[in-house]
Amino acid sequence: MDPIDSYVVVKAHIFHQMQIRDISMKCLPITYDSMSMFNLLIQNCSYIVCVDKIVAGYILCDDTGVICSFAVLPEYRKKGIGALLINAASKHYSELKLKETWLHVHVNNNVAINFYKKMGFTVLKTVENYYDCFKDTNDAYRMVLKLEPVLETPELEPALKTLDETILKSKPKSDHVATL
Ligand SMILES: CC(C)(COP(=O)(O)OP(=O)(O)OC[C@H]1O[C@@H](n2cnc3c(N)ncnc32)[C@H](O)[C@@H]1OP(=O)(O)O)[C@@H](O)C(=O)NCCC(=O)NCCS
Fold it and tell me: Can you tell me which atom of ligand 1 is nearest the CA of 81?
């Protein structure tokens, strides 16, 4: 597994829409249409990871705590990028004072289910016929992650900001919580 030397986690903007769409079409059976994606991006809760100026993965989120779409390009997987994206979204939601974030995942998507479990998600329930595009089953798991409240410590904010910037520059594989 090669480490990533140069990467950055940034808020996704509407001008990233084409790159996000390309990744989604390569990685997922369902891609949001342009208007739905635009409506999500303007909620300002989504993130991308760029590796050497290439968008390697994205997490598309709404402002109520729902992770709507999430993928990392195959050649960049298993390097900690997925964890970076989940942590960036979780931190943002904690700052919005949300208590949990949740998503749906196809019941047979074992890689993603194991990934989410590793990130602390648990299965809340099975939603029957959630999808309409799979041949075997269209059932999904609804998975939820309880979020830690953000401490209200304005006097510590300058120090925490410095810490965040330092962590952002560290390599993703060195610490999966390092996104923030
Ligand atoms: C799910 C996905 C986003 C994970 O992204 P990623 O960048 O590879 O994930 P990470 O490298 O951050 O992995 C974090 C942990 O998840 C687990 N994991 C990730 N991929 C795994 C795999 N293929 N097999 C087993 N465990 C895996 C590991 O425990 C890993 O930690 P470790 O490497 O320290 O053991 C990626 O596999 C993907 O894009 N899949 C296709 C799209 C998809 O299914 N999206 C979810 C739709 S609900």
Answer: 7
